[in-house]
TrEMBL record:
Lineage: Bacteria, Pseudomonadati, Pseudomonadota, Alphaproteobacteria, Hyphomicrobiales
Organism in which the protein naturally occurs: Microvirga guangxiensis
Protein function: Synthesizes alpha-1,4-glucan chains using ADP-glucose.
Catalytic activity as recorded in UniProt: [(1->4)-alpha-D-glucosyl](n) + ADP-alpha-D-glucose = [(1->4)-alpha-D-glucosyl](n+1) + ADP + H(+)
GO molecular function: alpha-1,4-glucan glucosyltransferase (ADP-glucose donor) activity; alpha-1,4-glucan glucosyltransferase (UDP-glucose donor) activity
Name of this chain's protein: Glycogen synthase
NCBIfam families, alphabetized: glgA, PRK00654.1-2, PRK00654.1-5
Gene Ontology biological process terms from the UniProt entry: glycogen biosynthetic process
The family this protein is said to belong to: Belongs to the glycosyltransferase 1 family. Bacterial/plant glycogen synthase subfamily.
Keywords: Glycogen biosynthesis, Glycosyltransferase, Transferase
Amino acid sequence: MLETLHSEAGAAFATISHADLHSDRRPSISVVRKQSILFVTSEIADYIKAGGLGEVSAALPRALRHSYDVRILIPGYRQVLSQIGAVEEIARLPASFGIPECGLGRGTTKDGLTVYVLLCPELYERDGSPYVDSFGQDWSDNDIRFARLGLAAADIACGNGDPLWQADLLHLNDWPSGLAAAYLAWRGQHIPTILTIHNLAYQGLFERDRLPSLGIPDAAFHINGVEFYGKLSFLKAGIFYASHITTVSSTYAQEITRPEFGCGLDGLLRTRARQGRLDGIINGIDPSWDPSKDPYLVSRFSAENFRGKRANANTVRKSFGLALSNGPLFAVVSRLVHQKGVDLAISAAETIVSQGGQIAVIGQGEARFEAELQALARRHQGSVGVRIGYDEGDARRMYAGSDFLLMPSRFEPCGLSQMYAQRFGSLPIAHRTGGLADTIEDGVNGFLFGEPCLHRFTDAIKRGLDAFRSRPRLSAMRRAAMKRPHGWDSSASKYKEVYERACQTAAWA
């Protein structure tokens, strides 16, 4: 498979031996082709983003493009089509079962990354996010919408998409693309597939009676297949049929094999771990997170000179209605949901305010948390400021201006916010779980606490306040946080190792 040649221009290059250069005979030319990777995702930060998957989908393919011919497949949401520019339809993908026909379009990002777009207005050209409508309700046809994505990925891997390109390996992401691995298996195709789990809690669950419309064989509705407690699980399908599973931190890879974090899939994941088919690879953050260059900041700074943090802090205070202060500024940049420990942050606010601290919050999520935070801000005017929603500039200035980031997540597969905060010299105060445990060194570049409860959380906050009162220690911790490696190079190298193992496994199948 790795030696299969495709005719796409630019995919190959010629090499001439040293001996040939010094002889009269015609040089022998060997063709070396980059392995072809199709990165299948339901969101990408270039065009549409609902969470961390969008950031990873934008950054990881770019980190891999020097080693692979990596291309992206994404549904043709309205937001994608309005931003990507010219899209050439290169194929029609036929209807199958209850999955409608669609066009396969090809476009490019501004920096030349090839993006395949599924052109199916009836499924994708809607207001709302990739997964929910403008009222926050799941689209009723999400099973068809993302089965279409999985089936298209399988078609492209089998050579039925772009006539000039074929994938050697599929890199699938979360439940929306999980069925791709299953469709290949049901066709008897041994094309290697990697499934990355970004958050095991989201599984893509649907009723059993949807099987015929999705082209899922009855025999696959089994514990050794797609069945999950009487329902169809797209994520389980991906885990069961993929060649290899990755998740987004080494600690989370261990956690999801235990019942308390496994979301009912811990047994299957323990099996994959025993087989050597489960790896944890921490995410990186893209190079734009650089406080010395960030255009959103009112004053730029670096690990060698972070005096500019104060100007950003004052801007945040003014923007969020906080009083000017020399005390510590705490930030919350988060989805406002139970997983993120928002209730713990609300309860800990009294401790922070009583110690002269201030809190700025940006995010949206569950209505009860939004209301509780707004009530908290009214009780502590000048000390707590809340903005429901999200703005990139505000968020970046909050990371840059704050002294601490509150991140008491009950579980956190990887987390990006703590890395953004560290890069901008804000010390995360976080629960010791998942990627938080892998990226924060307690007392060195942030603070960790064990049990996700108010007592442990406030203890960690008090340790942060102690550090704030000791300027030499605070400066040393900020510097350590800013200098921690945050990029994608190490992670990309580990993905390359996984790709090679998956290809070997598929070759033996």
